[in-house]
Amino acid sequence: MNENYAIGIDIGGTNTAYGLVSREGKIIFSNGLKTTSYKSFEEFVEALSSNVRTMIDRVGKEHVKGIGVGAPNGNFYTGEMVDAANLPWKGVLPLAKLLKQQLNKKVVVTNDANAAAIGEMIYGIAKEMNDFIMVTLGTGVGSGFVANGQLIYGHDGFAGELGHVIAVRDGRPCGCGRNGCMETYCSATGIVRTAKEWLSTRNYDTILRKEEKLSAYAIQQAAIKGDHFALELYDFTAKILGQTLADAVAITSPEAIVFFGGLAHAGDILLVPTRKYFEENLLSLYKNKVAFHLSALMNENAGVLGASALVWG
Amino acid sequence: MNENYAIGIDIGGTNTAYGLVSREGKIIFSNGLKTTSYKSFEEFVEALSSNVRTMIDRVGKEHVKGIGVGAPNGNFYTGEMVDAANLPWKGVLPLAKLLKQQLNKKVVVTNDANAAAIGEMIYGIAKEMNDFIMVTLGTGVGSGFVANGQLIYGHDGFAGELGHVIAVRDGRPCGCGRNGCMETYCSATGIVRTAKEWLSTRNYDTILRKEEKLSAYAIQQAAIKGDHFALELYDFTAKILGQTLADAVAITSPEAIVFFGGLAHAGDILLVPTRKYFEENLLSLYKNKVAFHLSALMNENAGVLGASALVWG
């Protein structure tokens, strides 16, 4: 029995992607469905399972080792999604249990950022690393901490919420009900918030004033063109990101930090100032020891790859 | 060959304690020497080895599995002490190598707080725990993070410096050269600093004004007597401690935090307000899930016990 394939499922608030992935990290088939099209969670799992079953049958189910799922608030220990803010269905959703009933395969669930960390460790830039931090800078900020070669799930399966470390005491209100969480500044949403605040309170000369709908992508394009306002936005974002990462390093002392997600697409525009503030804020013990990498899976279907890696991880 | 004993060595800036410990965590013999009496590191190791050898010979060396050492800035991977601020000798000191040459036993070195965490896991309150944080509130603040049942040493062996997380941006100068480190507020030294600042700038009515030499112990005694100033000092210290711990929980999601060290001797006077601020600052996901414990080794020779546990851990 050659179990050379894994199924990866990446559940998002709008779309859900799934794919059949080889042991080497090659996506053989992939497809998707609209998460929001299903009234109940049960209907959603049924439709998803039916699609995945077709995919499994194409290679023969004896060749598929299992199913990995990256899901909002997905819990590794219970296999449930719990009160995910972006999903149409609320409460505790028994994802692993229902998928296992439908597909009769081992199912491993975790959140998107943890899946990304495992994906990076199995297929990506962190292949040889025992200690690293994965940071996903998207609509929010997620993270996965790997120490001693293992992902830290924590006692309850909810470890790694770096986006909800308080970066600015009494700072911006966060969706979580508290103030000053790192993700209110250092996500795609956060940098747009900063831009809007600054545009409404200060008199800047910037091409971004002409943007109808200010987005992280528009800010990135303006920065590439040398727009001073956009570059200052990155500098401000980088300062908070660098400070927060410097404190995280004092806890797990990783060899590298791997960046992923929309905001990370800015590359050096974000990472060069982030490194500057990071080094300035590090305890001397750690200075010049921690590498910064962009995810090796950035331009691939990373959600599906990362989720499939859970099966091998 | 019944290797039922381990040697524990606890190197401090002033005194070094050592002992022979049974597998069950009973100290069979123990003794000490003055760290500061030795001009060179080599002389110190020679004297220490000679004393330890006598102890080993009393039970027979075939019954001793190895030697664990808790040492300032002790590095698990290299067995060295590196630039420890409180030691009379500077630079990189090859502790494990010299001890092994002298005693021909397995030698495991780490820093004091990591040794305390392992001690708690092998002999103490954390026996059944896979995920916890050990916090030592002494002259400085040390910590050991355990995740997936293993201590996090990090890539370079220097993980777990919670005392040097920036608790107050642009706060008090720290011995490490930066500002606002948690240990400048939440250590025995930190609470005394706060007391002195407040006494010199505000008009408080407190029995502590009469103290010739203000100490953490004097503050604790005053708090027990209901002195409002002393209680306010604990409240302020607890706020910073609670906030910092809440952020650390977002990274490793432990089932418990275990407190150790001089400042922790205050017990509920410190821990009740710390829990209040901790819960206020936690992401809702973690609320009411993390237990607080005082170390079970608090009144024992915890340094020696913790160090000896490295041999079994």
Overview features:
homodimer, 313 residues, alpha/beta, Nucleotidyltransferase, domain 5, five-stranded mixed β-sheet, 12 strands
Describe the protein.
The structure is a homodimer of 313-residue chains. Chain A is of the alpha/beta class and 313 residues long. In chain A, helix 6 crosses helix 7. In chain A, 37% of the residues lie in helices and 20% in strands. In chain A, strands 3-2-1-4-7 form a five-stranded mixed β-sheet, with helices on both faces. In chain A, strands 10-9-8-11-12 form a five-stranded mixed β-sheet, covered by helices on one side. In chain A, 51% of the residues are buried. The A-B interface holds A 130-131, 145, 147-148, 150, 152-162, 164-166, 169, 176-178, 243, 246-248, 250-255, 281, 283-286, 289 and B 130-131, 145, 147-148, 150, 152-162, 164-166, 169, 176-178, 243, 246-248, 250-255, 281, 283-286, 289.
Multimeric state of these chains?
homodimer
Weakly predicted, low-confidence segments of chain A: none
Averaging pLDDT over every residue of chain A, what do you get? 94
Q: Greatest contact pair?
A: A-B, 40 and 40 residues
Number of helices of chain A: 9
For the record, the CATH class of the largest domain in chain A is Alpha Beta
CATH topology description of the largest domain in chain A: Nucleotidyltransferase, domain 5
Q: What percent strand of chain A?
A: 15-25%
Task: Report the structural category of chain A.
Answer: alpha/beta
Quick one: overall form of chain A? globular
Rg of Cα set of chain A: 20 Å
Biggest sheet record of chain A: 5 strands, mixed
- What strand line-up does the widest sheet of chain A have? 3-2-1-4-7
SSE order of chain A, as H and E?
EEEHEEEHEHEEEHHHHEHEH
Helical coverage of chain A, percent range: 25-40%
Report, as a whole number of angstroms, the end-to-end distance of chain A.
Answer: 19 Å
How many domains in all of chain A? 2
The fourth-level CATH homologous superfamily of the largest domain in chain A is ATPase, nucleotide binding domain
CATH architecture of the largest domain in chain A: 2-Layer Sandwich
Please report the total strand number of chain A as a whole number.
Answer: 12
